């Protein structure tokens, strides 16, 4: 509890549980001993009609929406020259050729650990952002929030603001109502289609897939996934909306683990606002708190909650209630920020009339920042030092063959990966087995100390080779050897393997 006796963010659990407790207490007071009615655990969705609002946080949300949507729709069309034979799309996940491209970075299938690194960075970044500013990601950058905001903007343009939409939905069905509903849903479907189509462009060359799509020449998977993403965008942003944040998204369930008394969250200043109630013109403010119970903070909330009840699972931290309350405070001549982004510590300091302080640097934020820096540093170093070649050596299932000359022969499958955009030659040598010679199958029959193989540009060279050694060099049933692969530009890769021979008693 806070010093003034009000509940703090740690005193609240699931908002649905809180409402249930309130309802039971109200029923107990009203019933005066009457048997309690059974609690209904299922209820129809209460339709939310958010009101239009303007202010600092609404402007930030518009900026985030335009920036993120612009990036999402434009990025597939950005070109990046990688040379002949390579795709020129700046950001592309080419599943057909098993490559990932991000401007100058090219990721191969065996480098999937970079994807793991990105996921770790995203997770730790989300932890850091939440510990600093609550659900700022949910309120401004989450795709569900961004597209829902866009869909609600279309809804207001077609059906009007909150009051007009409520009245419109209560009207009987008519040709005009059907027409406006069709216009709204049609606009939603167009946005959803553009969303699904843009997502496909990150996996197939954008100009090519657009041309093939409308010409009917695209693959079945392209049509399927465009339809799938169109449907999910339409349903989630147009129909489900706040239900996704409340019931489908797992993040609200464990965000409290990232919060503490120094996290910035949307907060109602209960000490200043209570006791709330209507304020008549000429009435002294000392008789009531600054909250006039206009419920405009509820009217603008995209999830339909009352922030005055404290931090709740449904709150996405968008700050629109702050803008709405500040509008009312300006009209009644009171200071702003009755509802504000604030910390629990600062709220307690206000009550105790102590100096207000922010504590951005604290153990958990330092830990998250160091983790973020460490993972990012490892990825940068790995990218800067990674080889542009790779080698795989696999021993044949046949253990060994003893030739008529007495020499021992082992067979291997050799694969040389060339990540460069030009054909390259590689020298193959073996260390650890004196007198051993290499026979490249299909190329020669005479063993050589060193052989040369070729790998195609941005491709794989596959070869089969025999390794022969004099019987006197094979002193044990299994000898450790090393294949040394050297490219024409000096890069060297070493792979260890074994050379098998007969037991000493049999030689």
Written account of the structure:
The protein has helices at residues 15-31, 56-74, 113-133, 136-140, 143-159, 162-170, 175-200, 206-215, 220-240, 242-248, 251-254, 270-273, 296-299, 320-331, 344-351, 363-385; strands at 91-94, 99-102, 105-107, 265-268, 339-342, 389-395, 401-402, 408-418, 424-431, 437-440, 450-455, 459-469, 478-487, 492-500. Helices cover 41% and strands 17% of the residues. The longest helix has 26 residues, at 175-200. The chain has 507 residues and is an alpha+beta fold. The chain has a domain at 389-506: Immunoglobulin-like. Strands 6, 7, 8, 10 and 12 form a 5-stranded antiparallel sheet that branches. Strands 11-9-13-14 form a 4-stranded antiparallel sheet, with no helix packed on it. It has 16 helices and 14 strands. Mean pLDDT is 88; it is low at 1-21.
Q: What's the layout of helices and strands?
A:
Blueprint: H1 15-31, H2 56-74, E1 91-94, E2 99-102, E3 105-107, H3 113-133, H4 136-140, H5 143-159, H6 162-170, H7 175-200, H8 206-215, H9 220-240, H10 242-248, H11 251-254, E4 265-268, H12 270-273, H13 296-299, H14 320-331, E5 339-342, H15 344-351, H16 363-385, E6 389-395, E7 401-402, E8 408-418, E9 424-431, E10 437-440, E11 450-455, E12 459-469, E13 478-487, E14 492-500
Antiparallel strand pairs: 1-2, 2-3, 4-5, 6-8, 7-8, 8-12, 9-11, 9-13, 10-12, 13-14
Helix pairs in contact: 2-5, 3-16, 5-7, 5-9, 7-9
